[in-house]
Automatic annotation (TrEMBL):
It comes from Desulfoglaeba alkanexedens ALDC. This is DUF89 family protein. Pfam families: ARMT1-like_dom. Residues 3-279 form the Damage-control phosphatase ARMT1-like metal-binding domain. It comes from the Bacteria.
Length: 293
């Protein structure tokens, strides 16, 4: 997915939100924002939005010396998600289909997104999770995912956000764990999950976890480590959480991918063919060809 002019206000809002968490005085804030706007003046609209955000966060880290502006929010999200997950276990046990219940909760937890919601409210997360089990999910796509998981030998599960990763763990509990490698970001960007969040979620105790070696809020293969690219190439099923992974992998060829996300952006809604607010399971398999992955 390419960047559109509609993305520019979101980029500015993300930069402002990150800088507000860096403890800058007004002069330093303004100076850094000028640098951000200069970077956006040279934006390459041919690349996916996470490639632009990657450059902005590199600039912000260098200018402010703050490695992880959302560290406090990520820790809070993990704690909140743990409390919610324990609450929902009883509802999962009472549901007709535990896999579908866990899938819906993992999808709804994609709401924990400070990239889209710079001032995310706890009540909004709670409401999203409370309504998740009653939300519609394409039954054919969910059935196709279940079958693909059963048939796969090597599954790569690409995580998205802190907090959300706790509900990924809840879903992974009922998947064939010996086949799964879970993947997090190589370093902090927005509130995306890193190895620290995977440990906080208890995911490292359940399956193999690796980072992708990249600082992009998605999966830009050309920026990822050789070890991750080898795993990506070897996987026969990729489960990709969140909008950032959709934006960066939606044109990938020759790989069976299931995108799992909540639609939070009108551009994603247009591209994916679903309304904002919808919980989406989207199978994806473009034939191998000459197109760039």
């Amino acid at each position: 997915m390419k960047t559109f002019h509609d993305c520019l206000p979101c980029f500015v809002a993300q930069a402002v939100s990150a800088l507000e968490r860096c403890g800058l005085d007004e002069a330093a804030f303004q100076e850094t924002m000028r640098a951000v706007l200069g970077e956006l003046a040279r934006v390459d609209f041919a690349v996916p939005p996470p490639a632009v955000v990657r450059n902005l966060y590199r600039l912000i880290r260098q200018a402010t010396g703050t490695r992880d502006p959302y560290a406090a929010e990520k820790q809070h999200s993990n704690r909140l998600a743990h409390a919610m997950a324990e609450k929902f276990r009883k509802k999962i046990e009472a549901s007709e289909d535990g896999f579908i219940a866990r899938l819906k909760l993992a999808l709804a937890a994609n709401s924990i997104d400070y990239g889209r919601y710079g001032r995310l409210q706890e009540d909004d997360v709670l409401e999203a999770m409370e309504t998740a089990l009653a939300a519609p999910v394409d039954p054919d796509a969910a059935a196709a995912l279940r079958q693909a998981v059963a048939e796969a030998d090597r599954i790569l599960y690409l995580c998205d956000n802190a907090g959300e990763i706790v509900f990924d763990r809840l879903l992974i509990e009922v998947l064939p764990r010996d086949k799964i490698t879970a993947v997090v970001r190589g370093m902090p960007v927005i509130n995306d999950a890193t190895l620290e969040d995977a440990r906080a979620a208890g995911l490292t105790e359940m399956v193999r976890v690796m980072d992708n070696g990249s600082d992009a809020p998605g999966t830009l293969l050309e920026t990822c480590s050789p070890a991750f690219r080898d795993c990506f190439a070897a996987a026969d099923l990729i489960i990709a959480k969140g909008q950032g992974n959709f934006e960066t992998l939606s044109e990938t060829r020759g790989k069976q991918i299931f995108f799992l996300l909540k639609v939070k952006c009108p551009l994603i809604a247009r591209d994916i063919g679903q309304p904002t607010g919808r919980l989406v399971v989207k199978p994806h398999l473009l034939p191998a060809g000459d197109a760039k992955p």
